[in-house]
From TrEMBL:
Binding positions (substrate): 40-44, 111, 311
Assembly information from the UniProt record: Homotetramer.
Enzyme Commission (EC) number: 1.13.11.11
Entry protein name: Tryptophan 2,3-dioxygenase
Catalytic function, reaction form: L-tryptophan + O2 = N-formyl-L-kynurenine
Binding locations of heme: 297
Cofactor: heme
Amino acid sequence: MQKNTTPCYYGDYLQLEKLLTAQAPESAKYAAEAHDETLFIIVHQVYELWFKQILHELKAVMAEFAHAEVKDEQLTGIVHKLKRIITIQKLLNTQIGVIETMTPQDFMSFRDYLVPASGFQSVQFKMLEIGLGLKSGFRIDFDKNSFYSRLNVKDQDFLKHLEDEPSLFERIEKWLERMPFLQLNNFSFWQMYQQATDTMLADDKATVQGIEQIAEHEREMQLKEIERTAEKFAALLDADKYQQLQQDGTFRLSQKAMLSALFITLYQEEPMFNLPFQLLTCLTEIDENLTIWRYKHAMMVQRMLGTKIGTGGSSGHDYLKRTTEKNRIYTDLFNMATFLLPKSDLPALPKEIKRGLGFYFAGQE
Ligand code: HEM
């Protein structure tokens, strides 16, 4: 490594002069400066800096998935970066507590000066959502156009262009689809899986039918629940049924990708699936942390505004609460548990299959 030729100075390196003079309370322009407005500005700025770091990691991860082949050393780097995103998100979720030290009345002393600025205009937050896979078609109805109409033309064009790029969700889907299917040397994994699930569901049914202590209507309800689960299992292995459930929003991943993700999850302890499983777990955690942030932000907004509308014109708390339920991305990975079997019931993988599956998945786009 080459030695530096000019001495580095802490404040210059971090451009502190720029950073520490970038807090200009609006209230000071109209009346006595509201004390808490500095806190409000700094908290938002810190969030935006961390969003920048998350996007930096996400961009690097997406670049790795753009390759037709993702090698094991690349997967190690990807998982490392995703874990960094998760650690930052945990910090962001805790940071809500700092803004909550401001009382609703202190907020009222400067809030009206901020109209019509709003979190809707955080381009980096929208980049994060879109980059992870929350494109317009998957947002709650109000959200499909709401934030676009609050942005200037330059930001609108930028984000609309981003919607046309493949998101992390789509790249992961392609990567999962490239996994070789287990139809090698006359061993059909999915046939054996189906037999194992049929046995499991039949056992569940027999157990419910055999319980003496429950009322008849309860028994019927439980049997119906088992039937519903059986339908989902059946759809998993039937292209037409799967497509129907994809259309009604039950599944978002393609059937092929879903089966690969399930296979990785079922055999997570196999060394070759360790990193892919960690990767899927990271995506689940990122989605969960984003949802926790949405929820904490929505609760904080209710404390600050009650049922008042937001400066961006949404219904405020009510709108934000709905995004926690609907603006989710990796729900397929959350729902994967529906299709898991106890380890003891899993078909054992023949030796040649274990050998045949590489540590990473190569293939065609
Ligand atoms: C007193 C504190 C805060 C209040 C009262 C508040 C209020 C709101 C409201 C009402 C909305 C909905 C859009 C609208 O109608 O304006 C919103 C959206 C948003 N806020 Fe905040 N907010 C606060 C603090 C923060 C902080 C600290 C951040 C950190 C970056 C933030 C980021 C966002 C983002 C990204 C959105 C868009 C969410 C989405 O579209 O799903 N807010 N905020």
